[in-house]
């Protein structure tokens, strides 16, 4: 990456909107320096845009000051990482012509190394207490297992996931839809500052740039491409979190969803995502099993083992043959268990020793322990 190429990309970061595939094709075919030259110094209109659009792009290019942007970024503790740099995450190249021209990175760790073992946790901004709890729990659990938690720094699920990872002493990355020197939302200024100190704050937009609805949506493709998989914790039918998960699916990454109440509008989008092929997950171990290496298995799930489960089948049949209430003779119990009276008596004495039954004269009845097993 030459200085000229880097400066040209900084210019294009001011000119092209994130995800502009036409601009990305120009860069791929002509190189960033040639595209920047045509935009700033004049030249033939490049293919794929109207004359009006071309004039608009040239107007933006006339205002670009790449040296100033680089200085402003350095003052904020940020650097500009481009394709071809050692820190560039190669998985972003799967976005094709829509990949970022470059990324502004604030924080000390290597973005490439952190992205190799990362998971996105995204969801509703106006989440419920359940959603916030699940996001924080997943963030902490993933961090404890050595995963980098990636999210968008927004209110709700994003913030809870970041805080969960930070609280566990783990790694987290916030991908912003604005300049990395301009925390958004403002209410998360302290959180994003803490992420920059302990982790990374990343964005495509140059210093000082503001977010827009389209930039939020384009930001989501970076989150999807950067990580091994995307987990959605609460999302309505129209949710940017679902855009991230569907982008992950298109890119061949894992899409996962945390289920919620069937009556909750905040979980309706997640449930639709699950119906569309995403994987249901409920904790960090299940996420790690899906996106991790061979051998990273979640523990088996099963109900409690009851004393009755440990009985030999014939003995369990005799126990089942006792009435729920009252006393029964050995002959009646044997008939119910499908065995001989002698065999039933032998098993009844075994059950008495285990505390399941007690003898009443010539009959047998369940103890409180055995009665509980029958109910």
Plain-language structure description:
By secondary structure, the chain is an alpha/beta fold. It folds into three domains: 3-71; 90-291, Rossmann fold (3-Layer(aba) Sandwich), CATH 3.40.50; 307-374, Winged helix-like DNA-binding domain superfamily/Winged helix DNA-binding domain (Arc Repressor Mutant, subunit A). The protein contains 17 helices and twelve strands. The chain has helices at residues 3-15, 21-30, 32-41, 51-63, 66-75, 111-115, 129-144, 157-167, 189-198, 213-226, 240-250, 265-275, 284-291, 313-321, 330-337, 341-353, 368-374; strands spanning 78-81, 103-106, 118-123, 148-151, 172-176, 200-203, 229-233, 254-258, 279-280, 328-329, 357-360, 363-366. Strands 1-2-6-5-4-3-7-8-9 form a nine-stranded mixed β-sheet, sandwiched between helices. Strand 8, helix 12 and strand 9 (279-280) form a beta-alpha-beta unit. The longest helix has 16 residues, at 129-144. It is elongated, with a radius of gyration of 31 Å. 47% of the residues are buried.
